Amino acid sequence: MAKPRLMQALMALLLAACALCAAAKDAAPVAANPQLEARMMALATELRCLVCQNQTIADSHADLAVDLRQQIREMLEKGMSEDQIRSYMTDRYGDFVLYKPPFKPATALLWVGPAILLVCALLALFVVLRRRQALGDDAFDPETPDDVDPHAPAR
Hints:
The chain is an all-alpha fold and 155 residues long. 56% of the residues lie in helices and 0% in strands. 10% of the residues are buried.
């Protein structure tokens, strides 16, 4: 009776191992030249993953990011410079692909937008506080102790 259970357990273990092997991905391709790989990774940290959008293509595991890293690797092997590759990527995907887009009229709002929002928020806070300061004491609810429920019946 122990042999059939042992065989069943071994078969289950074998099936689980086969399932894990089937789900495994191939290793990411790496250039034979470590200097080329370092250049590729440095350039990949400057480009945004178009799928993830908050990661560089160096950090992303999305299929598109893997493909773009391979494309950069191939371009470097062909002798293209980093500037040529950046230019190719921006021509193809726009300035959005750059993790730090250049300051120009089309991207000016990206650069000055947060400062404008901060100034507007501080101005609104200043106006609200000035209006509250001008109100009399009768405009506010009287202070009540925290332990007394104003809706509870009197004792």
